[in-house]
Amino acid sequence: MRECLANATRHADATRVEVSVAVHDETVIVTVDDDGVGLPTRPRRASGTRNLEERATRRGGTFELSTRAEGGTRARWAAPVPAPERSTL
Question: Which N-terminal residues, if any, form the signal peptide (predicted)?
Fold first, then answer.
């Protein structure tokens, strides 16, 4: 979430950012929407977004950047929540 908020601040020229954190079907989903300038015509993965994608993939999840219909960008990071370990007592 921190990387997505930093990107909205540094690159998007956003005036509004909305953050959602949810757990659905044992998957945690973090969504960050901004009303900024949107993605460039030829987006590239910079170190921060590449890192987000790699961390999601290592956990069996996904990271996606997309342009919102109303303008701005949506970043969505999702990964399975590990099952808690059971005590053997």
Answer: none
Assess contact for 49 and 63: CB atoms under 8 A.
yes
Give the sheet arrangement for strand 62-67, strand by strand: 17-24, 27-34, 73-80, 62-67
Residue 10: which domain range?
2-80
Domain membership flag for residue 89: no
CATH number at residue 23: 3.30.565.10
pTM (predicted TM-score): 0.82
CB of 31 closer than 8 Å to CB of 74 = yes
CA distance 17 to 41: 21
The per-residue pLDDT for range 32-65, each reduced to its tens digit, is 999 999 887 776 667 788 889 999 999 999 999 9
